[in-house]
Structure formats: C-alpha cells, structure tokens
Write a structure and sequence with these properties.
The protein is an alpha+beta fold. It has 4 helices and 10 strands, in the order E-E-E-E-E-E-H-E-H-E-H-E-E-H. Helix 2 packs across helix 4. It starts with 8 loop residues before the first strand and ends with a helix.
C-alpha cells in the first residue's frame, strides 16, 4: 500500500510529497506548515505529514530547523542501533498524534556524520527538540510514546 507518508522527502525549501489523488509531486514550504496545502494539479487538500520524515542532507536539515513554523523533533539514529529500532515505532505514533502541530525528523548519523558532530551527539538514539531554529531540549535513549509526548510538551 502506497500512502502519502511513504513519499515524503525533505529538501532545502520544504517537504516534497505526492498527492494521494493524482500522484503529482507537491511542496509544503517550511514557513507555511500548519496552513492548508492543495495539490497544484487536482487541488485536492494535502494532509500534513503524519509520519517521521527522513532528512538526507545537511542543507535540508538546516532549512527545516530555521524556517519551520512547527517545532521539530529530531531523532539522531543509526541503522545498527538496537534502541534506535525500538524507538522508531514510538516516533511513528507521536508523529501521527502530532499531525499539524510538530514535525518529526530522522537524521542518520551514518549518512550525516557532520550533523552528529555539530550537535555533539555522543549516544544514540538522541531526541533533540528545536523551536524557531534553536535547541530547546535533548534526551538520549529509547522511550515509549507517552514519554516522548511529555518531553515535547514540557519543552513547549
């Protein structure tokens, strides 16, 4: 089954996603997250992301933090990390629960080691919450969805 969430990518200007109705690629700019987006081709309303978004470049990461109108919860992780694998489904729950209120971004320290170094990530998984481009909270280790929700709300 192919869903909208399966096709979301982050770039330096926003989130790229495929319309569930006509399959046209569309961009949700970071600055306008929270507003209504419509497909440029068929004008179907596009839902906000309900799953974590993989960030595959430092440029996209920097832009998402600096320009997102929503808080951004970043999961620094690695494919070989057992606790990271345990955290992944909990982040999916939190992303769905926070649809339209926050963005969950996943950053692989294997693919983007310079970001891990820049943010002094010494253990994984590490969740870091950013608001208006600034780090406001950090928590290392796997945790259940309820604890992630509390972490986001307490930092808010």
């Amino acid at each position: 089954m192919n869903t909208v969430a399966d096709t979301i990518e982050a770039d330096e200007r926003g989130l790229l996603l495929t319309c569930p109705h006509c399959s046209k690629r569309n961009r949700m700019t970071y600055e306008r997250l929270g507003q209504t987006f419509r497909c440029g081709q068929c004008h179907t309303e596009l839902p906000p992301p309900a799953e974590p978004v993989e960030v595959n470049s430092e440029t996209a990461f920097n832009a998402s933090l600096a320009r997102s109108s929503w808080p951004v919860l970043v999961d620094f992780w690695a494919s070989w990390c057992g606790p990271c694998k345990m955290l992944a489904p909990e982040l999916v729950k939190i992303a769905g629960e926070g649809t339209g209120r926050w963005l969950i971004a996943k950053v692989s320290i294997e693919e983007l080691p310079a970001l891990a170094q820049r943010f002094r990530i010494s253990s994984i998984p590490t969740l870091t919450l950013f608001k208006a481009g600034r780090e406001v909270a950090r928590q290392a280790g796997a945790m259940p969805a309820a604890a992630i929700r509390q972490f986001i709300q307490q930092a808010g």
